Each structure stands twice: as C-alpha cells, then as structure tokens.
C-alpha cells in the first residue's frame, strides 16, 4: 500500500542525507520526496511517499524516529488527510490543439502560465492521481515535451498538527 | 579544546594514530597528563580497543584517527561497534574547512562514509562548538540503545592560537532525542500475568542485558520464577553459565536443549535480544506454539523479524526490576507442576545431547578441550576476547561465563581481527585481571601488528591460537554445503608463530599434545607480566555442532557429522 509519511526534523546540514540514506540502506522505496523549512527556520518538514506492507511501513517510521535529527514522524495515510502535488507541464500547442488543451485545462482546473507560438506551459495542483489523469487525457490531443512534478506534500485534516 | 573536553568527560585512555589533520590535537595531548594516548599500529585496532573497553565497562571508549586513510581504516571498527550496539566516540581529523569538497590531500567524506554505521555523526563547523559537540557525542553514544558516534573535526578548528571561551556542559538536552527511561506499566502487568500462567516458558536474553547492566535483575526474575534461561552469543554472562537454569546459547550453534526448549515453548520472554537470523533460523517456522513478550529499548528491534504479542519498550534493568516487584507482590504463583514436567523434558534433552563432542576418533587435540581447559585454569573468571570463526563458537559453547561483560566478541559483524586489540583494550583498563584472546591462525593475522603495541604499553594478554591450519568456519561450510571443495580456506604458508612473537619481544609456546596443555596454560597465566602466545595445534577436521539446518526451524539441527534431529 502507498503511504505518505511526514517528518519534522532539525534543519541542519546532513539531516536530509540521513533520511535518504536510511531508505536506500534498508531497501525501502521512495516514490517521491519533498522537503523545505517550516515557519520555524530551525525545523524542516519532509514528506515522503513510499509503498510497502504494514510491517515495512512500521519499520520505516520506527527507523526514521531513531534518527537523532528527526523530531517527529507521522504516517498521514493512517488518518484523514489532504495531499497535494504541483505539476508544470510543457505541451506542444498549435492550431486547433490550443483550444482543446485549454478545455482540458479548465476541466482539471489547471492554469496556462506560459505561452509561445508552439507551446503551452500548464500548472496543475492536486492529488497525484489527478495529475496522472491530466497527463493521460492529453495523450490523444498533443504531445508532452516536459513534465516536472514537485512530489507529494500532505497535511492532516482537522485539528491534528505535526509540530514541536 | 578537544583534549580538555575529553578530560572533563573523565576519559582516561584514548586509542589512536596521528596524522596531518590532527597535529594540533596531538600537540595538545603532549602537553598534559590527564588523558593518556595509546598508540596503536593500525587504526582498526584503536577502534576495537575503545570498543572492548566499552564492552567491559559499559562506558564509551574513545578513538582518535586522522583524516583520509586514518578514518577509513577505522571504518571496520566503527561498524563492528554499531552492529553490536556498543557506545564509542570516534574523533576523526578532517582537512581544513575551506578545503572540504576540493579533493584535498587526505580528504574523505567521513560523514558520508560513516553515516550508515553510526548512531550519529557530527561535523564541527565552529571551534567554539567543540566542547558541546563532544558532550553530545558521549550522551548519544551511551544513552538509549548505545552506539558509536563520529565527530569529524577540520584541522582549522583546532588551531592552538585561536582562542575561545571554553565551557564543558554538565548535561545536554536534545529536543529531537529523548531516550526512554521506563516501560509501559500496563504492558508490564500484562506480561507478568502471562509469565505466571506459562507452562513451558523460556527466557531468551541478549546483549541488551549485558550492555544494559541488567544481569542481577534478570537472574533474580528467572530464579524467582524457576524458568530456563538461554542467552544469545552477545548475551553470554548475562545469566550465570554454571547455574542449573541456564540451558546454554541458542541459535545456529546453540545447544540442543536451548533450541529444543525454544521450539516447544508456550511463552518466550525476550529481553535485550533482537531475533537475529543466526538465532531464529527460518522465521516462518520459528517457535510455532509460543507467545512472545519482547522487552527492548529500541522500538525498531521489536516486531522487526518476529512479531511480539506483548511489546515493552524500555531499559531492561528498569523493566525487569518492575517485573520482579510484581511477581513478588502477586498472589498468583508460577504453575509448579507444569514447570516440573517442563524441566524434566529439558533435562532429558540436556542429557541426550548437551555439550558432547568426541575425543576418541583422532589423536589430535580437540578445540573444545582447549576452551574447557581455559575455563578450568581461569576458574571461569577471565575476560575472554575472541576473534571470529570456529574458535569463537567453541569459546561461546564451552567457556562458562558466570559474570557479564567478560565475554568480548564481535557478534553482529563477525569481524576477524577483533580479538587481539579487544584483549588489549580490556587489559589496559583491568591490569590485574586474566585476559585471554581466543583466536585462530586466520584471524590473528588480521591485526598481528598489535603485538608491537602490546610491547610498548606492557599488555601481558594471553593469546590462545587454536591452530587448525585453515579458515575453519569457511571450511566447515564447504564440507557441509560444497562437497568439501576447500576453495581458498586452507592456509599453506603459516608463519612460525613462536618465532614471530619472540621477535616482537614476547613469549611463544607451541602445544600439540593434550597432555601438555594444562601445564603450559598454567605456566602462561603464571607469567603475569609477559604476553604469552600459545600456538595450539587442534584437529583441523573438527566442526562446530550443533548447527541448525538452513531454512529449518529452531529444532532442526545437525548434532554431529552424521546425526540430525
Ligand atoms: C560465526 C558466527 C556465528 C554466530 N552464531 C550465533 C548463534 O549460534 N547464536 C547466537 O545467538 N548468535 C550467533 N551469532 C551472533 C549473531 O550474529 C548476533 O550478533 C547475535 O545473535 C545478536 O545478539 P542479540 O540478539 O543479543 O542482540 P545484540 O546485537 O546484542 O543487540 C542488543 C539488543 O538489545 C537492545 N538493547 C540495548 N540496550 C538495551 C537496554 N539497556 N535495555 C533493553 N534493550 C537493550 C538493543 O536495542 C538490541 O535490540 C554468530 C555470529 C558469528 C560471527
Ligand atoms: C574480516 C573478515 N573477513 C572474512 C570473514 C569470513 N570468515 C568468517 S570465519 C572465517 C575463518 C576464520 O578462520 P580462523 O581465524 O582461522 O578461525 P577458525 O574458524 O579456523 O577457528 C572467515 C574467513 C570474516 N568474518 N571477517
């Protein structure tokens, strides 16, 4: 099963490499990874999506917790949560295709953020499967020149917070 | 500041080897007397000496090595300590901070290299952080589940002319690291209820008793309950080896009775042990009828390979103490009748195959006889520091450890070359104790240069080299699994060890008849102030038994070359 694990950690040199190293060292898989400082600049928030059975994910959270730089770990997929990913996608866009692409964008609530005579660059935010669906639905309309995705960020619903 | 911090931490000995990046530190060492530096002949030995000090005392040992090759030579020793959860602080020199990343002379990324084999590592970025960083290193190494910590210090952080205010912190707190100090009372209560109802219980204890200083509590609980106790390789000495309730080591080369008892148990109390693959054999066949209580300070050890029914996260000493209290208080008593028939069964197993080996099928001395003699000559009271191989298993099986912290060996990593430096580290700190290094002619040659260090610092350890003229453990596997094709496990050009040790200034003895063994060994131990190397010829064809059958359950064992369960 796919899990989204959120990690609050010291914003220190080496901390990120410890987390990444742990995954490769213990043969855990990383689907995506995002990291940035929080409102408190001494802390970073890292989100990693991984696939594994319950036993593996239990070990992942335990091993993450063991890292000295890690302050807190939660598996967001254990409760209600919101996940978002940002994608920017550069598409071939000329002639009739332009209108068709625009329509698809509107359906997915994407925005065209850059235009040249032959291309559109579209920005889309949503859960990962929505981004996948957008890519799939463009398949017949145009050709994709470049895709860049941020990886998943997530937050728990309701009053639950991950903080010090 | 480095040396001052070590002094203020109460460090007496550090083990190391100098080099460019550490010249300022070595100059500071020269100008004081509180911290004594022991110069080894290879950095690996420095780490093993520090590690063995920790294994014998529970306190972190300290190694000091220079950048580049000094640091990489220390890697094996760091990994050895890491896999066995041993507290250690390793200070590595580093090139000047402005050169880092430029492939400078003797630069290696020690933070990157050591990352997977340390509990934590630090790179000092500002000289004024040195005292606090060293304090944190000791705190992290020694608390919670212990482990090695590396502190990498660029040379310019130790420039003697740069002066900073120095203060060694009394204590440290880290918001992201809070080792647990006691177990969950509800879980402990539940566990005690189960213990009192058990009919076929076994206590399976490991290194977490030894390094967690919980031997007295374990012994009290086991005796209160009249339960059998088995120890892992790392746990030996955690429960008195000559006590009737001790059923020996368990696992791959565990005793017949220990493995049988585990397999048939209805309740296993695992404490400070991590269900290693050398213990469990095939996990899907592991102890089919047992419920499992698992006490460990590291939640990640619990349910990692074998699922625990009652997990208890906490220090073994505190949790066991609480259990002892609850058992004493409880109105319930262990089921004496059930335990009686359980003990009958165990004693029957013990009588059938317990610790037997044959002495009649060859003229040659058996390695087991040598260890039994060592046990006799030293009254089971010596520090036994072992290398890795068959001799290690024989030592584990046949030396009766009645006290914790006396059996010093590399279990998790299985580092050949560990034994001699380990014995040196122990002898340095316990000059009056008998310290033996049990080794093979393969292992000893991995750090034999340390005989020179022994001379310099007068470390009269006794080296028992069980010379079977081959890499015995490898050969055994080749005999059993590769139709005796002895690929590269035979050593054709062994040195004359007696001459070799004499050249280093020590005493050498050659023993090839059992009749001479006791006399020679007594003589060796009587030479209190000399290092003695006993080159003991043993049967080259001997195998270690029992040996679990691969992919079987705990009870599937080879008991000799011809008998199987
Ligand atoms: C040639 C060879 C053969 C081997 N054969 C065997 C064999 O037959 N049988 C065998 O048992 N081993 C054998 N080993 C060793 C094996 O590889 C493991 O090292 C060993 O089994 C691990 O022991 P342990 O479970 O006690 O764990 P350790 O590695 O000692 O780990 C200690 C555990 O205790 C925990 N802990 C630490 N401090 C505390 C505390 N204060 N309170 C509570 N918990 C704590 C830790 O978190 C950890 O989980 C062999 C090794 C070699 C080289
Ligand atoms: C550094 C290292 N290299 C290789 C091994 C693999 N290995 C395990 S036991 C062994 C043979 C040890 O031979 P020896 O020291 O003579 O002991 P014996 O088994 O003969 O008693 C080897 C090569 C190891 N454990 N450590």
TrEMBL record, chain A:
Q: Which PANTHER family match?
A: ACETOLACTATE SYNTHASE SMALL SUBUNIT, ACETOLACTATE SYNTHASE SMALL SUBUNIT 1, CHLOROPLASTIC
Q: What does this protein do?
A: Catalyzes the conversion of 2 pyruvate molecules into acetolactate in the first common step of the biosynthetic pathway of the branched-amino acids such as leucine, isoleucine, and valine.
Report which gene this protein is encoded by: ilvH
Q: How does it assemble?
A: Dimer of large and small chains.
What taxonomic lineage is listed for the species of origin? Answer: Bacteria, Pseudomonadati, Pseudomonadota, Gammaproteobacteria, Oceanospirillales
Q: In which pathway does it act?
A: Amino-acid biosynthesis; L-valine biosynthesis; L-valine from pyruvate: step 1/4; Amino-acid biosynthesis; L-isoleucine biosynthesis; L-isoleucine from 2-oxobutanoate: step 1/4
Origin organism is Marinobacterium zhoushanense
Matching entries from Pfam families are given as: ACT_AHAS_ss, ALS_ss_C
Fetch the SUPFAM superfamilies from UniProt. Answer: ACT-like
Specify the enzyme's EC class, one word: transferase
Spell out where the chain crosses the membrane. Answer: none
Report the family membership: Belongs to the acetolactate synthase small subunit family.
What are the alphabetically sorted keywords of the record? Amino-acid biosynthesis, Branched-chain amino acid biosynthesis, Transferase
Q: Name the domain of life.
A: Bacteria
Q: Would the keyword Nucleotide-binding be found if you checked this record's keyword annotation?
A: no
Q: Which reaction does it catalyse?
A: 2 pyruvate + H(+) = (2S)-2-acetolactate + CO2
Recorded E.C. number(s)?
2.2.1.6
| Annotated protein name in UniProt | Acetolactate synthase small subunit
What region holds the ACT domain? 4-78
From TrEMBL, chain B:
Q: How is the cofactor bound?
A: Binds 1 Mg(2+) ion per subunit. Binds 1 thiamine pyrophosphate per subunit.
List each copy of the Thiamine pyrophosphate enzyme central domain by range. Answer: 188-322
Q: Where is the Thiamine pyrophosphate enzyme TPP-binding domain?
A: 387-535
Coiled coil spans: none
Query: What are the alphabetically sorted keywords of the record?
Result: Amino-acid biosynthesis, Branched-chain amino acid biosynthesis, Magnesium, Metal-binding, Thiamine pyrophosphate, Transferase
* Domain Thiamine pyrophosphate enzyme N-terminal TPP-binding positions: 2-110
Pfam hit, one? TPP_enzyme_C
Keyword Transferase part of the UniProt annotation: yes
Cofactors demanded by this protein: Mg(2+); thiamine diphosphate
Q: Tell me the protein family, please.
A: Belongs to the TPP enzyme family.
E.C. number, please?
2.2.1.6
Please report the organism this UniProt entry assigns to the protein.
Marinobacterium zhoushanense
Pathway participation: Amino-acid biosynthesis; L-valine biosynthesis; L-valine from pyruvate: step 1/4; Amino-acid biosynthesis; L-isoleucine biosynthesis; L-isoleucine from 2-oxobutanoate: step 1/4
- The molecule here is called Acetolactate synthase
Write down the chemical reaction(s) this protein catalyses. 2 pyruvate + H(+) = (2S)-2-acetolactate + CO2
